[in-house]
Structures are given as C-alpha cells and as structure tokens.
Amino acid sequence: MLIIDGLQYCNWSERIFRDMQAGGVSAVHVTVSYWEDFRETVERLTAWNRRFETYPELIFLGRGAADAARARDEGRTAIFFGAQNCSPMEDDIGLIQVLHDLGLRFMQLSYNNQSLLATGCYEAEDPGITRMGREAIREMNRAGLVIDMSHSAERSTLEAIELSQRPIAITHANPHDWHPARRNKSPEVLRALGQSGGMLGLSLYPHHLKDGGDCSLAAFCAMAARTVEVMGVERVGIGSDLCQDQPDSVVEWMRNGTWTKTLDYGEGSAAQAEFPPQQDWFQSNRDLPGLAKGLRDAGFDAAGVDKIMGGNWLDFFERSFAPKP
Amino acid sequence: MLIIDGLQYCNWSERIFRDMQAGGVSAVHVTVSYWEDFRETVERLTAWNRRFETYPELIFLGRGAADAARARDEGRTAIFFGAQNCSPMEDDIGLIQVLHDLGLRFMQLSYNNQSLLATGCYEAEDPGITRMGREAIREMNRAGLVIDMSHSAERSTLEAIELSQRPIAITHANPHDWHPARRNKSPEVLRALGQSGGMLGLSLYPHHLKDGGDCSLAAFCAMAARTVEVMGVERVGIGSDLCQDQPDSVVEWMRNGTWTKTLDYGEGSAAQAEFPPQQDWFQSNRDLPGLAKGLRDAGFDAAGVDKIMGGNWLDFFERSFAPKP
After folding, report:
1. Fewer C-beta within 10 Å: chain B N or C terminus?
2. With the CA atoms of A285, A185, A151 and A30 taken in that order, what torsion angle do they form, in degrees rounded to the nearest 10?
C-alpha cells in the first residue's frame, strides 16, 4: 500500500520525518505559505532545501508522481510543496511559472478572505472568480500548478471547477452535511469536484470533524464511505491537515496574517483560540496506516482502501503536475 | 484664486513643474503608484525626493493643507502623494501608517480589478468591501489617509462612503449620466458622496468626457454646474487626470500591470489603444486658469469659481490629512 497525505503543516523536524518513515508515508503535500509573499516563500523553500540536505535518508523534493513511487521503493518520503493562498504569486501572473519551476505543485486561490483571484469562505459575499482569477487559472493549467479550493467560498469553488481545464483539488476538507463547519464542502461542490476528475482530501483536523477531537475512527471512516458514494471511489483521498508540534502562535498567525489589527478566531473562538487537541487515533504520521484498518472495517475492499490511502492521489499527481503547451 | 488639481500622472520634468508655476497651480495630488508594491512605491518616492532637491524653487512635498497655502504665497507647487490602488500596502495593514508617514495622502481601494479591499469598476460582480477592506478603512481613517474610489465599482463605493468615518474622495471622474463611461459615477454615488462631505474631482481625461477630446470647455463647465446642483458647490473640484508627456507604453501598463498575459484595453479599444489626444483647451497645467473663465461663463459666481478651482480641495485637505486618535 502506498500512502500519500494531501496536506500537512507541521513544525518540521527529524522526529516528524522519522514518523513519516515509520508510518510508511511515501508522499506528503506540505504547506510552504499562507500569507508569505514571493520572497518570503523563497525563504520557506530554502529552509526545505536545508532539510533535504540534512535528512537525505528520510526526505527529498517531489516534482512528479514518479517521485512518490520512488519514495515508496526507497523507504523515504517525497515532499510536494503547496501554498494555502495566492500570496506567493503576489499580483504577477508571471510568478506562476516561476513557482512551478521552484517546485510548487498546489496553490489555493484564496485563504478565508477575498484574494485577487477568488473569495475565501469567511467573506459575507462570494462574487466568484475575478478577472485576474480567470487569467491565473488558465496559467496554472498551462504550468501544471494544481488549483486548491480548500479555504474558498462556494461560488468561487464551483466556478474554479468549471473554468479550469484540468481537474482541481480540495486538499483538506470534509462534507458539510456531515459536520457543518464553514470550511467543509456542500454536496454540490463534492459532486462537481468528483464529476470533473478532481480530488478531495478528507481532513483529520478536529474543527472539520463531527464531535471534533472526540470523533471516532469508525465515524470518520463511515463518513469516508458516504463521501465515496457521492464522489466515486477514485476521487477521495486523505488530507490530514496535521499541524504537529506547532505553537498556538502559528494558528493565530494563520487566521490573522497581517490583514487585521483586531483578532480573528477563524474556526475557533475567543474561548478556544488555540490549536484543538487531536483525536487519540491520529496524533502523528505513525497513525496513518491505522486509517486503512478503519476503512476496511467500514466496508471498503482492499482495492478501495489502497485508492483512498494513496492510489488516488498518485493518479492525480500523474495527471496534474506536467506542463501543457 | 488658489488652484489645486486633484489628480495628475505626468511624465514629470522641469517643463511640467514650470507649467504648474505659470498656471498658478498651488497643489497637485500626484499618483506615485498603480501596481507598485511597497518597495517599488518607495522607489517612486525617492525619485520625487530627487526632484524636490533639484527644483526647490518650483516644488516641495505637501503634507497638509497649510502647504498648499504656503505654495501659493511662494509661487511654488505643493506635491501631495497618492496611490491609485492598494498595492503599496500589499497585504499588511501596518503599512497604512508607514505610507502616511512617508507622505501618502490618498489611496484608492481598488483599481479596475478586484483588490484585497474592494472591487474595481471592470469586474463583472461587485460584492462590496471585503473583510480586510473594513479593517483598512478604519485604519486609513485613523492615520489620515484619504479613501479614493475613482476606479472602484458602484456597491464598493457606496459601502466605502458609508463605512468610512471621514469623508472620502473620488479624485477624478465625471457623472455617468453626462457621459456613460464605466469610470464615471452614478447619481446615487454622487449624492452620497456630497452628503457625506466628500469630494469629486472633475476629470479632463478625454475618455471621461462627452465627445471625448472634442468636448468643448463650455460643455465641460455646463456639466460642472449640473454636478454642483447634485452635490453642492462645496463638494466639487478639479481632478484633471493629466498624463502629459507619457509614452503609450504607460497606458498599456496602467491597464495590464502584471495581472494578465493577454491585453486589456480598459477605457480604450484595440483600435484606440493609445492615450487619447487631449482637447485643445486643456493641454497642460498652463491651461488650468482657463477653466475659471469657463466656469464664470457657465454661470458660477466668483466665490463658486474659487471653491471649484481649489478652495474645496483646500478645505478637504484641512479635514482629511491629520491623524485621529
């Protein structure tokens, strides 16, 4: 079984890379930017380059699907870069190609707020994809940079699916009718995503789970089974949103960046501003293989489990990262 | 008579500064940024600092209304900085104070396209002021940085007028019912702007004029008289949008920045992509005093002419540029 995680933002360390190895995790899409502009994103990449140099027996930069397969064969983890906002391209469409050249493989069009390209899920209004957004989608399609709408609003997401000539991803979210978090996705979005050949990464972040950190593995896997009924068994994977070892200052920064002088609590609240405690059955990358057993218990056959644990992401990587002339 | 021009973006030179002096122009709001980010905006400011050092007998930096009065007394021109987009503050609300410290006195919340703060007049949809936009308006009010909605869309403009605790400006535009250019403003916007104590700078840019460059001085001044009926004689000034000596590459850059790989023609068209030729009665700053005669001929009394030619802007400067605790 090949395991791929569709999104993590940990406080990276040797310990976490060893967790990945112990968990048999062959590829992880890691967030390099939330609010970082181009130059700051490059700093995040140079930090990764130092990690690749320091831990070559554990991790290396993934650029294509073949790197995930190679990582499995070698017992390492291929790291695929992504951004949770379009901040790294600033207002320059030319930076899309540059970011792809530097290894970026996913980019969200908006993060909670309105961006230059699309609307985020916390805005009161959602006018859909902007003029620049249409240009950016075309260029991302050409370059092989995957459109990720995890933190975007409904209409913007549906329009992105429609406008994009290549399948898009929602790397980390769950169905809204299972748990009505603002970040979870409507049946319409999930259906359109599935029909267009896109991918949903099911999130293990407590705010996205029914009963939060008390959600059981069985309940999570039953939700996975229902999601597969809506989207098809080829269209669902894991996007754990694991934020292991991050201090609470990081979640405050994720929510507030530099856009406000007051405090925004996002999915939390003033009373629960910090990172929520993780459920006991998912504390680290070592727990990812345990999901496979849960999926079997929820009724998936072996082929279905393989697809959800990594096969579908591998197939999506194969279809998504190469440039199209 | 004190003459103030509410917006120019010329290819600055000694010749133009001498035109200002010959025309008796005591203050000009000059654009320093369209798409420039913070660092690029600082480069535009250092270029102005060199001009201030080179031509101290002609120009100096204006920071408050008293500088416009001083310029008149000394036969010089006070230069007030402004940005036609929120690009200079990037995504950092803290840069609003920094930009004010550096002399910025006006900032548009959007330029043609959707920005992080508001919608531009060329977008298909206008969802109004964004989450970050509300924060930015509050901070601009505090710092004394005037909100300019010249290139913004209807709903965003009405919301900015309502949300702002201080009067806002539309530094360069005309009534839409006189000439239905996308950039000209509806009666609702003009009424709300007037009632809130804001200012409209009447534009002399041919694309904003009925009959374009063939518009007569009499027709322009008759429009001014009708606009005063809607807004009040205290709420109207001049914002010529003079782009003297600019090469056509500049208007292409204004329209396209780095947001598209195709060509957008904005107010022009593929057949008329270049800067439109100026009407014969307004070629340079030397022609500004001629407007006063046109206004008299259109029926304004001497006090009304004084207000429109500069008195209203001077009063607005007095009310707008100081910080509020």
Report:
1. C
2. 20
B39 interfaces chain A, CB cutoff of 8 Å: no
Q: A87 and B92 in contact by Cβ < 8 A? A: no
Decide if B295 contacts B224 (C-beta within 8 A). Answer: yes
Q: What is the mean pLDDT of chain A?
A: 97
Residue B167's nearest CA partner among B282, B69, B313 is B313
Concatenate the DSSP letters of all residues of A228-265 into one string. HHHH-TTSEEE---B-TT--HHHHHHHHHTTT-SS---
Q: Give A16-25 pLDDT, tens digit per residue.
A: 999 999 999 9
Query: What's the pLDDT at B325?
Result: 80
- Token look-up 């140099």 returns A53
Q: State the nearest Cα–Cα gap between B30 and chain A, in angstroms.
A: 23
Task: Read off the pLDDT of residues A65-76 as tens digits, 9 standing for 90 and up.
Answer: 999 999 999 999
Question: A53 CB contacts (<8 Å, ≥6 apart)?
Answer: none
CA dist., res. A190 & res. B296, Å (int): 66
Look at residue A105 and give its three-state secondary structure. strand
**A114: contact with B, CB 8 A cutoff:** yes
3-state class (DSSP) for residue B205: coil
A227 close contact with B: CB closer than 8 A: no
| Whole-prediction pTM | 0.93
- Put simply, the answer to whether A123 touches B130 (Cβ < 8 Å) is yes
Q: pLDDT at position A213, please?
A: 95
Residue A202 reports pLDDT greater than 90: yes
Asked if A318 is an interface residue toward chain B (Cβ–Cβ < 8 A), one would say no
Instruction: Give the pLDDT confidence of A136-192 residue by residue, as tens digits.
Output: 999 999 999 999 999 999 999 999 999 999 999 999 999 999 999 999 999 999 999
Whether A279 contacts A214, CB under 8 Å = yes
Chain A CB contacts of B259 below 8 Å: 91-93, 116, 131-132, 135
The average pLDDT across B81-97 equals: 98
**Distance separating alpha carbons of residues A103 and A29, to the nearest angstrom:** 11
> Tens digits of per-residue pLDDT, B105-138?
999 999 999 999 999 999 999 999 999 999 999 9
How many residues does the structure list for chain B? 325
Of residues B126, B128, B260, nearest to A132 (C-beta) = B260
Check if A261 contacts B (Cβ < 8 Å).
yes
CATH architecture, range A3-320: Alpha-Beta Barrel (3.20)
Give B159's contacts in chain A (Cβ within 8 Å): none
What rounded mean pLDDT belongs to chain B? 97
Question: Which chain A residue is nearest to residue B113, measuring alpha carbons?
Answer: A131
Nearest to A288 by CA among A309, A313, A314: A309
d(CA B88, CA B95): 8
Query: Pairing between strand A146-148 and A3-8?
Result: unpaired
Instruction: Give the number of other Cβ atoms within 10 Å of residue A144's Cβ.
Output: 20
Average of pLDDT values for A259-265?
Answer: 94
Q: Do B132 and A260 touch (CB under 8 A)?
A: yes
| Secondary structure percentages of chain B, helix, strand, coil, to 5 | 45, 15, 40
Interchain contact, A91 vs B257, CB within 8 Å:
yes
B132 → chain A, closest CA residue: A259
Return the pLDDT at A294.
Answer: 98
What's the rounded mean pLDDT across residues B139-163? Answer: 98
Every domain of chain A and the residues it spans: 3-320
A92–B87 C-beta distance less than 8 A = no
- Residue B239 corresponds to which amino acid? G
Please report, as a single letter, which amino acid is at residue B37. Answer: D
